[in-house]
Amino acid sequence: MATVTAQMVKELREMTLAGMSDCKKALDAAEGDMDKAVVILREKGLASAAKKASRAASEGVVSTVVDNNNLGFVFEVNCETDFVTKNDGFQAFVSNLHNIISSAKPADLDALLATNYDASGNVKDAATALVAQIGENITVRRFARVGSGKNFVTSYVHGGGKIGVVVELAGSGIEAHLNNQGLIELGKDVALQAAAMKPQFLNEQEIPAETIKQEEEIIRNKFLQQGKPEAALAKIVPSSIKTWFKEICLVDQLFVKDDSKSVAAYVSEVGKKLGINDLKVTSFIRLELGQGVEKKAEDFAAEVAATVAAAAKG
């Protein structure tokens, strides 16, 4: 049987917000498999949908660039400590990346890293040089481009660079409205929605069939454990899946500024007022600082260790 460590319990708690003792029991039952432990907690109704990315964190900044309101970029630069983000050299590097991205409009991360930075080399070379200067690992880790140059694109950055969002809206004749204040305000509101409500997909069509199947199985097992008869699940499971869609799909979420309607409905309504009868959100990218980067254990691990020890005695 795999050994369940305090760090594993800490990570599972951060992923699911379940109690530490429940996390310990789930990990024991799953023999240390984190994904199986999440499923066990969810089937028991002790955790919300897994947020794998929240298992890890790192320092640095997420930032965005929008060009002519029709092309957007979001990127993440990581470092090891928050202190470095206030370093003049680090801030100058991020500022230069803004200018480089705006000018070169790279298609992906590899293209960005290969883009000329200055006379001494490309962006990757500049990051390496900054490591030697600051004495800490500096990485341009993620980069995404949104928009075809024909639709409306805007962005929002939260918490001084903790979360960055770029959204794209499309509709007939939208190119004539790119500087319309009403459209700009709407785009900002949708980007704010994505930052705050953490959607995982644009719409249900983007969700992989296997992901939906796994969710259906979790819901089924959850209600069976609650004593619901098998015959009732034919209605319960589809209804629960529809509720799940409204939680994880941006356009299906209730709009934060008017929860009487969905994001899609609100966008369509505003579009008609602006003279864009088929306005809709066509894409978005949300980056949260440190997603997927392992971070050294903090003192909190000691608290978890004490709980694990107490549970073992019990």
CATH topology of the largest domain: Tetrahydropterin Synthase, Chain A
CATH superfamily of the largest domain: Elongation factor Ts, dimerisation domain
Helix percentage = 40-55%
Shape: flat
Q: Report the C-alpha radius of gyration, rounded.
A: 22 Å
H and E order: HHHEEHHEEHEEEHHHEEHEH
In round numbers, the mean pLDDT is: 88
Strand order in the largest sheet:
1-2-5
Q: Helix- and strand-based class? A: alpha+beta
How many separate domains make up the residues? 2
For the report, how would you describe the main beta sheet? 3 strands, antiparallel
Number of helices: 11
Overview features:
Tetrahydropterin Synthase, Chain A, single chain, Helicase, Ruva Protein, domain 3, 3-stranded antiparallel beta sheet, 314 residues, alpha+beta, elongation factor
How would you describe this protein?
Belongs to the EF-Ts family. Residues 81-84 are annotated as: Involved in Mg(2+) ion dislocation from EF-Tu. One of its GO terms (molecular function) is translation elongation factor activity. The chain is α+β, with helices and mostly antiparallel strands. The protein has 2 domains: 1-56 and 294-314, Orthogonal Bundle (Helicase, Ruva Protein, domain 3), CATH 1.10.8.10; 59-201 and 262-288, Tetrahydropterin Synthase, Chain A, CATH 3.30.479. The protein contains 11 helices and 10 strands. It has helices at 6-16, 20-29, 34-43, 88-104, 109-114, 123-134, 181-197, 209-225, 233-248, 263-274, 300-313; strands at 59-67, 71-79, 116-118, 121-122, 139-146, 152-158, 163-170, 254-255, 258-262, 280-288. β3 (116-118) and β4 (121-122) form a beta hairpin. α1 (6-16) crosses α2 (20-29), α2 packs across α3 (34-43) and α7 packs antiparallel against α10. The longest helix has 17 residues, at 88-104. The chain is flat.
